[in-house]
């Protein structure tokens, strides 16, 4: 008798006899037969194997697993001879059952429902950040509310061996909460294994909206939401005590959803792939004190020591860039088409030859570098394992779940131990997601999530035969050789109790693009017909000489700039500091010596205005963006850094762009290629902010349809700045009053920390100094007047092309000037520029410098400064002061 029909009959009989059952006896509402998989090779989560083993499970949980197991008489048995049983695989990040990313995008109306009052940026500036700007913020989103998998999609996961998955939101700044689902056909409430597992975040905006538009704004927006969430709890507690109408706290499901994160009851899964993204995400976690898991982590191997030290878990992507042709193992050549005439076949060969020649457009050195970088990508998981860092794996960025196991097998061939690969699919994600007591192993008491394969899953031709999810069996329909039950009926999928097909739908999986399965051959070919022009790769950008901060340069011409030139002199540097300059200096032990004969030594060039080495330059949609920080977006792997160093520049002031009357905060740093932030920032450097006047700010060179905000006139620019400082003055007064009340013993909630107003208030106190992009003398005079009206000083006027006209006024105010040496008349407001600008301002006592304003022109800064000698009749030392 068929098992399913037997079960129905048993239930019917039990129902008929219920009235006659004596009091005190237990009635089973549903009868489930224990199930045993026998004669199977049991593979533990550490990769160890037990042959001819048995797994016994009942009511969805494993009762026993091993060699000597006594089976209940009523147990159904499945002969697993020749098969391998693994803990059901766990997908640590999946979009299974969710709308695709495009259709998941919120409309403005959907977003505005959760927002507060919204001003029109065409009507005036936003002096404060909005109370509830929700662009890219969906902390209240829950996978439980959206999870609706199709039969085909969930079957594809099971066909790849997955029995459970963490369903995650699509990337936004703060994306929402994930949940773990068992991949069965049970209703959602039964399939959900763990809820509110993690909050998710990324550096991707995700939504349309005015602000933020750049990585700069994303950082500031993230910070402001976190600060608001922290304060939200205080406000609610205070309102509960005060019972005053004015203290009533607006309902905010977004800020409520962030509370478990801030109390460390929930981690944040942060999508970060490059080394700098990972460091940035970890920095935010340290800043706000939440637990972080890095997802993606494609360059995690580069900072394995840091990750290990901070014990940061990883969910690693196995999505790689397309494999470079150079070094790729070629599979069998193209066979001639016998149906074609020989002449046609010859034409095809000639066309293929020309095509091959056309593709060789890079020098061999560059092609080798592309191969090396790709090999680094592929080896990421292997390097992490070697560093002793456990990791989990995901399918969310792959075309289909089968691609993951296929790529994983290739990594095993390349050196990843089988035990590490299996852990990444079982024990590691189970521990990470807090579900180890239920899944990730075949131990007694675990859920009967089992993956049955016909060969070890590490083998290329291994195929999943069955997947058990909470004890329920799913078999692929395209499987011609299924394990047989004791009744000899073959596949147990004929007529299940639910009257719905228990078997998997037919799942055909395209062969995914993946890493080369054979060893790459990156050796130089016998003949290489590629180009031979000079090329530069990353390895070329590291100094060949390693001084480690200790060096003696001898017999050089030294130009101190602040004093007379010294010929045939020496300079001793210890621990990165100049300790002595003299004609002859004895060489201390362990100091690298350089013969400087014929060489000239001068202070490293300082570029006072540059946009080099940053991943975002403007947060332009708003007239005031004082809250954004260039420090957040530094990219020390920019090739321009190396080229600037080749031109003699060692330090630069990286600035926000000039699209806002009040822009973002700048940063001064040392040009140290591919070094972490901790090694490039200059301690004690002035904290500065970028202002701007003129055509860039009013968007005068844009069409009217994209002039989305106030101001559109020069008068409006001044109005923006005054509006900002009026608001900052009130903001300071509010905080001063709170501090006084707190000192007097009053218990009140502090005012809202507004990062934009906070930055403006720091200008008023002198903790943040202003550098302003400007051209015309009339606008410059108005800016100086505004600063004096509010009691602060403009530190530096940038570009200041008409500074020569008002040099005495600039000197009286105490502002510096940073200008060009050879750029003028490139737009209307630059028509008044002259080459004598720097010399004339210097003559009037203004502290001047020459700047590049460009990641490319920075390497020519010395030549630019030399123009000042020609145009300004300045001495060599006077000129060198302009760039040092």
Structure explained in plain terms:
The protein is α/β, with parallel strands linked by helices and 884 residues long. Helix content is 30%, strand content 19%. Helix 19 (714-743) crosses helix 20 (755-765) and helix 19 packs parallel to helix 21 (777-790). The longest helix is centred in the C-terminal third of the chain and has 30 residues, at 714-743. 42% of the residues are buried.
Biggest sheet details: 9 strands, mixed
User: What gyration radius follows from the Cα positions, in whole Å?
Assistant: 34 Å
Coarse shape: globular
Helix content bin: 25-40%
Model regions low in confidence, pLDDT < 50 over at least 5 residues: 1-29, 486-514, 516-520
**What is the count of β-strands?**
31
Q: Please, how many helices?
A: 25
Structural class: alpha/beta
Distance between the termini: 93 Å
Q: Return the average pLDDT rounded to an integer.
A: 86
Report the portion of residues in β strands. Answer: 15-25%
Write the layout of secondary structure elements.
Elements: H1 3-17, E1 35-43, E2 49-58, E3 61-66, E4 76-79, E5 84-87, E6 89-94, H2 108-112, H3 143-146, H4 151-159, E7 162-167, E8 174-182, H5 188-191, E9 192-201, H6 215-242, H7 253-257, H8 259-262, E10 268-272, H9 275-288, E11 292-296, H10 304-310, E12 314-316, H11 342-359, H12 364-378, H13 380-386, E13 392-393, H14 401-414, H15 418-425, H16 427-432, E14 450-453, E15 464-469, E16 472-475, E17 484-485, E18 551-558, E19 566-574, E20 577-582, E21 592-595, E22 600-601, E23 605-610, H17 639-646, E24 649-654, E25 662-665, E26 667-670, E27 688-692, H18 695-698, H19 714-743, H20 755-765, E28 769-774, H21 777-790, E29 794-799, H22 807-813, E30 816-819, H23 837-843, E31 848-850, H24 861-872, H25 876-881
Parallel strand pairs: 1-4, 1-5, 6-7, 9-10, 10-11, 11-12, 12-13, 18-21, 18-22, 23-24, 27-28, 28-29, 29-30, 30-31
Antiparallel strand pairs: 1-2, 2-3, 4-17, 5-14, 7-8, 8-9, 14-15, 15-16, 18-19, 19-20, 24-26, 25-27
Helix pairs in contact: 19-20, 19-21
């Amino acid at each position: 008798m068929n098992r399913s029909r037997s079960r129905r009959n048993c239930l019917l009989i039990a129902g008929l006899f219920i009235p006659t059952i004596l009091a005190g006896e237990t009635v089973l509402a549903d009868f489930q037969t224990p199930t045993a998989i026998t004669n199977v090779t049991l593979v533990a989560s550490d990769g160890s194997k037990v042959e001819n083993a048995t797994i016994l499970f009942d009511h969805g949980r494993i009762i026993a697993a091993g060699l000597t197991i006594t089976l209940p008489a009523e147990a159904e048995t499945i002969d697993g001879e020749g098969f391998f049983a693994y803990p059901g695989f766990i997908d640590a990040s999946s979009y299974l059952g969710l709308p695709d990313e495009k259709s998941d995008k919120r409309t403005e109306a959907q977003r505005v429902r959760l927002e507060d009052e919204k001003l029109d940026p065409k009507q005036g500036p936003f002096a404060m950040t909005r109370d509830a700007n929700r662009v890219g913020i969906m902390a209240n989103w829950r996978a439980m509310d959206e999870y609706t998998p199709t039969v085909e999609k969930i079957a594809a996961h099971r066909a790849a061996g997955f029995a459970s998955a963490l369903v995650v939101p699509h990337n936004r700044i703060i994306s929402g909460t994930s949940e773990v689902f068992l991949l069965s056909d049970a209703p959602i409430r039964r399939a959900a294994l763990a809820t509110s597992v993690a909050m998710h975040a990324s550096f991707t905006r995700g939504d349309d909206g005015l602000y933020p538009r750049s990585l700069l704004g994303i950082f500031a927006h993230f910070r402001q939401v976190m600060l608001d969430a922290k304060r939200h709890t205080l406000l609610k507690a205070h309102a509960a005590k005060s019972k005053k109408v004015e203290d009533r706290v607006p309902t905010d499901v977004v800020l409520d959803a962030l509370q478990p994160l801030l109390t460390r009851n929930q981690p944040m899964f942060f999508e970060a792939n490059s080394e700098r993204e990972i460091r940035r995400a970890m920095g935010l976690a340290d800043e706000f004190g939440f637990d972080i898991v890095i997802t993606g982590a494609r360059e995690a191997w580069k900072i394995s020591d840091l990750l290990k030290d901070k014990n940061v878990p990883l969910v690693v992507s196995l999505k790689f860039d397309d494999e470079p042709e150079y070094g790729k193992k070629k599979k069998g050549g193209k066979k001639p088409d016998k149906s074609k005439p020989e002449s046609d076949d010859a034409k095809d060969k000639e066309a293929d030859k020309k095509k091959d020649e056309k593709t060789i457009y890079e020098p061999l050195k560059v092609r080798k570098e592309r191969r090396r970088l790709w090999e680094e990508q592929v080896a990421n998981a292997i390097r992490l394992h070697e560093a002793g860092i456990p990791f989990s794996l995901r399918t969310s960025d792959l075309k289909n779940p089968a691609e993951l196991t296929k790529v994983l097998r290739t990594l095993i061939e390349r050196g990843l131990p089988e035990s590490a690969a299996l852990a990444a699919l079982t024990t590691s994600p189970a521990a990470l997601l807090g579900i180890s007591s239920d899944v990730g192993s075949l131990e007694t008491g675990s859920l009967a999530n089992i993956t049955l394969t016909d060969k070890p899953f590490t083998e290329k031709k291994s195929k999943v035969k069955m997947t058990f999810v909470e004890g329920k069996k799913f078999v692929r329909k395209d499987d011609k050789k299924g394990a047989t039950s004791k009744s000899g009926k073959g596949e147990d999928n004929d007529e299940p109790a639910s009257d719905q097909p228990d078997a998997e739908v037919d799942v055909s999986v395209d062969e995914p693009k993946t890493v080369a399965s054979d060893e790459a051959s990156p050796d130089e070919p016998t003949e290489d017909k590629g180009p031979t022009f000079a090329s530069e790769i990353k390895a070329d950008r590291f100094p060949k000489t390693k001084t480690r901060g200790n060096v003696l340069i001898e017999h050089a011409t030294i130009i101190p700039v602040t004093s007379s030139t010294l010929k045939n002199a020496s300079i001793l540097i210890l621990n990165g500091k100049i300790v002595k300059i003299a004609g002859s200096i004895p060489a201390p032990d362990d100091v690298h010596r350089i013969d400087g004969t014929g060489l000239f030594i001068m202070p490293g060039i300082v570029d006072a205005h540059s946009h080099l080495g940053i991943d975002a330059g403007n947060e332009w949609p708003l007239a005031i963006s004082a809250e954004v920080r260039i420090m957040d977006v530094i990219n020390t792997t920019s090739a321009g850094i190396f080229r600037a160093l080749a031109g003699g520049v060692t330090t630069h002031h990286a600035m926000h762009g000039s699209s806002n009357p009040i822009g973002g905060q700048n940063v001064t740093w040392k040009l140290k290629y591919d070094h972490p932030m901790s090694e490039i920032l200059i301690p004690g450097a002035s904290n500065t902010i970028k202002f701007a006047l003129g055509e860039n700010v009013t968007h005068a060179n844009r069409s009217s349809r994209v002039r989305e905000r106030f101001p559109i006139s020069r008068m409006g620019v001044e109005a923006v700045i005054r509006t900002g400082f009026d608001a900052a003055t009130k903001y300071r007064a509010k905080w001063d009053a709170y501090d006084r009340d707190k000192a007097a013993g009053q218990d009140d909630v502090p005012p809202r920390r507004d990062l934009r107003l906070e930055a403006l208030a720091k200008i008023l106190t002198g903790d943040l100094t202003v550098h302003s992009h400007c051209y015309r003398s009339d606008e410059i005079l108005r800016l100086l007047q505004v600063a004096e009206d509010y009691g602060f000083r403009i530190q530096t006027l940038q570009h200041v092309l008409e500074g020569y006209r008002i040099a005495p006024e600039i000197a009286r105010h105490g502002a510096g000037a940073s200008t060009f040496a050879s750029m003028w008349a490139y737009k209307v407001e630059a028509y008044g520029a002259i080459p004598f600008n720097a010399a004339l301002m210097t003559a009037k006592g203004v502290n001047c410098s020459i700047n590049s304003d460009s990641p490319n022109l920075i390497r020519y800064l010395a030549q630019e400064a030399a123009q000042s000698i020609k145009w300004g009749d300045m001495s060599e030392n006077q000129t060198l002061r302009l760039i040092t």
